[in-house]
Write a structure and sequence with these properties.
alpha/beta; 38% helix; 2 domains; 5-stranded mixed beta sheet; Hexokinase, domain 1; Nucleotidyltransferase, domain 5; 6-stranded mixed beta sheet; single chain; 326 residues; 13 helices
Length: 326
Amino acid sequence: MADPVLVGDIGGTNVRFAVARQGFAGKPVVSDVSVMPGDDFDAFDDALSAYLDQLGKGAPREALIALAGPVSKGRVQLTNRDWMVDTARLQEKCGLASVRLVNDYAAMARAIPELPEGAFRLIHEGEPDSSSRQPILVSGPGTGLGMATLIPVGTAGWRVLTGEGGHAAFAPATPREWALAEKLRESHVYVSRELVLSGSGFDAVHKALCDIDGTPWEKTPPGEVLERANEGDPICRDICEIKARGTLYALGDAALTNGTKGGVVITGGVAEQLADWLAAPGAIDRFLQRGPMSDYMQPIPIRILMSGEAALIGAAALQFDEVTVP
């Protein structure tokens, strides 16, 4: 059995840490979970040191950290936070024997087979082929828009293919969305899916829609926008519909491109808040309606992940996947 490992899930908003162990049948089990606002720390090293101090002498000697940014040569520049994370520096400063960095969506995707059905909300049942294991797309809007594909290996294993699909260009599908994209281009050189659909672009989208309608813009928390949308406020409803429908449109493109017949899992804090909007028929149709390939899309099930600890479990699974049992 593998030694315990320190795991982390580092996004644009929060920093999550836990200690992971192998449980029954090798399933990862996490404990000592800590969630801290990233704004509380000047650098990631400080956040990790604070968590190690909490654990004291019993802290694991190895760590696998999942971060919201591309990994290159043991370093990650976070996409939505001004942190540079370096494995060599972490080992030296924090006294760890080894540190491994992975993209946060590698961990998020790897978690999916480890989670119970209760961790998901099914919004499109589809008709998956139960006779074989098929690739699964894992993506969704949080602070950013991550994306990964879970590929079956052998009879039980999994391999994760990560990418930066969230930074592909936003594809408008209605006159309102075209107007939004054009307005955003006045202040942004490139209008990506992440800008329109994720939390990082929330204010920009809200302000653009207000400008289009000639309405004064006031900075408004996302939760309040959601409440106003449910009460019928036109601009707030547009924000929720554009984000939900645009997310399903983007995920439909990725599912079609990658052949993820095993299903689509929508993740991220924004997705959890917009769950009812994502489940609406108008959003599901954006995923399904693909002209002559609509029949290809219909059998693909769509679920929303409702577990905040998923990436920690996935990070542990990635670590334990590397362990060779004598």
